């Protein structure tokens, strides 16, 4: 009897010793996995492109160019006054881009007062010459090359503006006051400070050619050439851009 009880007790102890580790291992095998965590997606980064619409403002200075003389009714030449003055305005345009090449159209309009005046005599009669351009605008093509955040470009096209020319010769007034047309050409550099904003510096030569000046009596003389150089700085805003962007390589 004691032997049977002793054997039963031994078997129970052995079973407990074996089942304990096995039960722990089984619990480890079927333990629930830890919850999975996901990192938030990276922000959408807009490519740094010059393509698309833009609008901007500008301001600058203009100074005279072309022939520095005027034709007097006597057939003599008179001195033409230097034309200069400040201006300001705005521009709007659209760019296309293919690789590093950027091309498009831009139009601008400026208001200011570019003035010139001279006095003299042809030996017989005194004269006073005055001319002014109160506003002008352009419609131009642009072609440039972008590297990094910098764009170098050339530009040229159609120009127009309001010109007023007067010559008072021996008390007779000859004048012309109308809207003139001509051409323009130039170039500049533009730099992106963000995806939306860019700064530019630009030079343009504007030429409206010559037109006759008429007196009240119907007499006419050839007027001086209306042409001038311009240098300006501007700020452009690109529509639909993003504040997060990748620099151009």
What does this structure look like?
- It is a single chain.
- The chain is mainly beta.
- The chain is built from 1 helix and 14 strands, in the order αββββββββββββββ.
- A hairpin with a 5-residue loop joins strand 3 and strand 4.
- The radius of gyration is 40 Å and the shape is rod-shaped.
- The termini are far apart.
Average pLDDT rating: 84
Low-confidence stretches: 241-249
Structural class estimated from helices and strands:
mainly beta
Q: State the distance separating the first and last CA atoms.
A: 94 Å
Number of helices: 1
The secondary-structure element order is HEEEEEEEEEEEEEE
The protein's oligomeric status is single chain
Instruction: Give the biggest sheet.
Output: 8 strands, antiparallel, barrel
Proportion of residues in β-strands? over 45%
Spatial order of strands in the largest sheet:
2-5-6-7-8-9-10-13
Helix content: 10-25%
The general outline is rod-shaped
Number of strands: 14
How big is the Rg? 40 Å
Write a brief structural summary.
This protein is mainly β and 249 residues long. The protein has one helix at residues 2-29, and strands spanning 46-47, 52-64, 69-71, 77-79, 84-98, 101-121, 126-147, 150-169, 172-192, 197-207, 212-215, 220-222, 227-238, 245-246. Helices cover 11% and strands 61% of the residues.
Please give the structural blueprint.
Blueprint: H1 2-29, E1 46-47, E2 52-64, E3 69-71, E4 77-79, E5 84-98, E6 101-121, E7 126-147, E8 150-169, E9 172-192, E10 197-207, E11 212-215, E12 220-222, E13 227-238, E14 245-246
Parallel strand pairs: 1-14
Antiparallel strand pairs: 2-5, 2-13, 3-4, 5-6, 6-7, 7-8, 8-9, 9-10, 9-11, 10-13, 11-12
């Amino acid at each position: 009897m004691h032997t049977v009880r002793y054997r039963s007790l031994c078997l129970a102890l052995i079973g407990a010793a074996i089942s304990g580790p096995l039960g722990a291992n089984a619990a480890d095998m079927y333990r629930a996995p830890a919850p999975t965590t996901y990192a938030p997606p990276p922000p959408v980064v807009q490519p740094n492109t010059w393509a698309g619409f833009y609008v901007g403002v500008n301001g600058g200075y203009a100074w005279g160019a072309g022939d520095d003389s005027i034709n007097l009714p006597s057939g003599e030449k008179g001195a033409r006054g230097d034309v200069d003055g400040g201006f300001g305005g705005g521009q709007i345009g659209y760019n296309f881009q293919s690789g590093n090449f950027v091309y498009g159209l831009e139009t601008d309009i400026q208001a200011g007062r570019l003035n010139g005046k001279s006095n003299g005599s042809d030996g017989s009669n005194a004269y006073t010459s005055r001319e002014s351009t109160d506003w002008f605008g352009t419609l131009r093509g642009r072609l440039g090359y972008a590297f990094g955040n910098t764009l170098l470009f050339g530009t040229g096209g159609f120009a127009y503006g309001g010109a007023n020319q007067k010559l008072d010769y021996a008390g007779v007034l000859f004048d012309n006051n109308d809207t003139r047309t001509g051409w323009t050409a130039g170039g500049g550099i533009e730099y992106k400070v963000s995806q939306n904003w860019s700064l530019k510096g630009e030079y343009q030569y504007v030429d409206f050619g010559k037109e006759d000046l008429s007196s009240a009596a119907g007499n006419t003389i050839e007027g001086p050439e209306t042409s001038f150089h311009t240098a300006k700085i501007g700020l452009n805003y690109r529509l639909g851009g993003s504040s997060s962007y990748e620099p151009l390589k």
